[in-house]
Amino acid sequence: MRQLGKDLRFFLAMSALVFPLFIAGYVAFTWAWPQFPAEWVRLLTPYTGAPHFEFRLPDRFTEWVIDDVFVVALPEEFFYRGYIQTRLRDLWPKGRLFLGARLGPAFWVTAVLFALGHLAIFQVWRLGVFFPALLFGWMRERSNSIVAPALFHALANLLIKILDASFFGRV
Fold this sequence. Notes:
The protein is mainly α. The chain has helices at about 1-30, 40-45, 60-90, 105-115, 130-145, 145-170, and strands spanning about 95-100, 100-105. The relative contact order is 0.18.
């Protein structure tokens, strides 16, 4: 129970730190991408049309909460960070200390595999999940648990759905 409390505090602290930055980056990107050449836009984003902000939750939001926690984030974190990253770290234990977590080849390989796993639907922009995978992996190493990264992963997925619905009416 003590570990769970520690994991929840870590999740909340990381959410308070990262999500405002993520929202600012999302808003900046939605402003900037219409300025890019059309070929780049097709590679970098699934969005079409001009962004227009009007806060709204995605249709079927409650279903998305259940889906993102139990069908997406928990299984992906169990597999990628709980199993793959842990097994690879056992094979390649060396790494450099970074903000309280030892990061070595297992950390990087797991992030690459996670990104490649998202290419089941081949669209180049889907490789962008490599960057949150780095954060999920760091959180796994820092906390020695998958609770905080799984909750963070689920909330990140929900946040992007809310932003997509609010800017593009999608989801």
